[in-house]
Amino acid sequence: MNVPVIIPTFNPKEKIFDVIGGLCEKGFEHIIIIDDGSKAECADIFKRIEEIPECILLRHEINRGKGRGLKTGFEFALKNFPDCDGVVTTDDDGQHTPDDIERCAMAMVRDKMMVLGARNFKQDNVPPKSRFGNNMTRIVFRLICGIKITDTQTGLRAIPMSFLEPLCKISGERFEYETNMLLELKRLSLPFEEVTISTIYSDNNAGTHFNPLIDSIKIYAIILKYALSSLICSLIDVGLFTLVNLLTISAFGENEALRIFVATASARIVSSLTNYFVNQRGVFKSKQSVKKSIVRYYILAAVQLAASFLLVNGATILLNAQSSGWQTLIKAVIDTILFFFSFAIQRDWVYK
Description:
The structure is a single chain. By secondary structure, the protein is of the alpha/beta class. Helices cover 59% and strands 10% of the residues. It is built from 12 helices and 7 strands.
């Protein structure tokens, strides 16, 4: 295999030599180590690493984060190993066995797609915070992003060479970068698969530099921004619906259906335009032409408008809800349900 291994490291321990030794035994000829601004006490470790023929040591003068370390490794590989099949990333603490690293690399070379090493989080040796964190992220990925991944936080990833250039352009300098990488696979329709690997945690994962609070906020903020735009526009929609509904009571009298339709349509026109441009530019970052995506968007909007009107009007008749307050509540509940359907369609069809 012509596959360099990339290992970002920050304040490494002696364990890193077990990782390097295992890779050398498997025949990996290029092991790119990125010193991410480690403390001075680690100088001896890095001096010994530089003496290993297979190792290439790159340095950051200050700590810049795992994401930046990975991008530094990707950029180095693109420049110095342009003819390689791809790269494989792994951690410096021995969580990934040489056999698993080799299997992921071989699967990537064979199948020409990214390969993610997937751990089994149901095992007893998994620390509670790791089990909870991965399960939560996995659920959010599935429901919000439409991506089915077993291990969203794996550091073992085999990446084809053709994927590296777009992955270097992704935002994120620290742990959130690995999440952004998975989202980019979805946006660019880059294929990936999972390979089951051993589940290893040393000292209850005490050596991790992952901050459960700060880094989780960054990770979930990246994912939940997909939903924030629709939530804001839903509030605009409900607010305008209520205002128009109140202002047109005298104009339409007892014609409840026409009043609800006018209020729904007026609110939807304003909120949909806001929602389209926020989603197109800031959320999905769609590269499709505005002409193509806006036509799809308004096909969806028309269907959603009709569904909202029919369901709100039907519920108003069924519940005998004559006041505008009850009608607003009914609309809020129905549009919340429609939101999930609309979001999935926007994600996979409108902005694709």
